Amino acid sequence: QSLPQQKLLTWLSVLECVEVFAEMGTARVWGEMGRWTIIVLIQLAKAILRLLLLLWYKAGIQTSPPIVPLNREQQQPLHPQDMEDNSSGKDQTYVGRRSSRVVRSLQNTPSLQSRHWGSPQQREESQSRRAEEMNQPSTPLGLQETIAESIYITRPLLHLLSLGVWGQRSWKPWLLSAVLDISSLSLLSDLKDLNRRERAELRRRTILLLYYLLRSPFYDRYSEGRILLLLRLLADYVPGVGFVTRPLMDYLPAWQKIYFYNWG
């Protein structure tokens, strides 16, 4: 990736990390008008950055989060003592004569900070496989797929616009957003030879369609009572589950009011 593209991904990641905090902080300081203003500004900035990545840098299907978090355990470097052992050519493994099982040699046990439970071969294979997956180029998108990804990117802006036109209690913004999400997934479903990261992103988007059960006005009219009843029954009749379901029942109303939790 070029340096400008990396910077765009970094800013996009920063926006996704601070959007909920910005919404709640602005609502506390400037009220409801300030809250909706910051929501529109953040969604507009995210859409511009994503469209630049899609149309200018040909980034393909964009994942969330834009920058995959670093697995520090897998990327942990060898300590000096371990590097000396490697450079001296000492065997780090022992192969059983009868079982053919590969185990670590006791004489070359790595330091505690870099110790792991798998065999060195397994670790090297997993690291190389993960590095291969991360370095795979994005799948080129045709016109249909580019339109589908553009629909997915601009859907938050169209939803906010429909909220401003028809109001928060209207079914039209909810239906418009659902149609756009399903249309985008349908157009992308014909795309073949996706890499693992892109397939995971499409699965994530498909699972997120369940959020429409928790989004107003569907949640207010249909889902709320049934979900709370189910959580209450689980808390009352299933031992131990109440430690999770009771706080969840208290948290759901607050969670449901935060725009970026529901629609971000």
UniProtKB/TrEMBL annotation:
Q: Where is the composition biased (Polar residues)?
A: 106-116
Keywords, A to Z?
A: Peroxisome, Peroxisome biogenesis
Q: InterPro entries under this entry?
A: Pex16
Pfam families from the xrefs? Pex16 (PF08610)
Query: Where is the protein situated, by its record's location annotation?
Result: Peroxisome membrane
**Family that this chain belongs to:** Belongs to the peroxin-16 family.
Basic and acidic residues bias (residue ranges):
122-133
Gene Ontology BP terms: peroxisome organization
**GO CC terms, sorted:** peroxisomal membrane
Residues annotated as region Disordered? 74-139
Superkingdom as given in the UniProt entry: Eukaryota
What is the protein's name according to its record? Peroxisomal membrane protein PEX16
Q: Does the record's keyword annotation contain NAD? A: no
| Broad class of the protein's primary localization | membrane
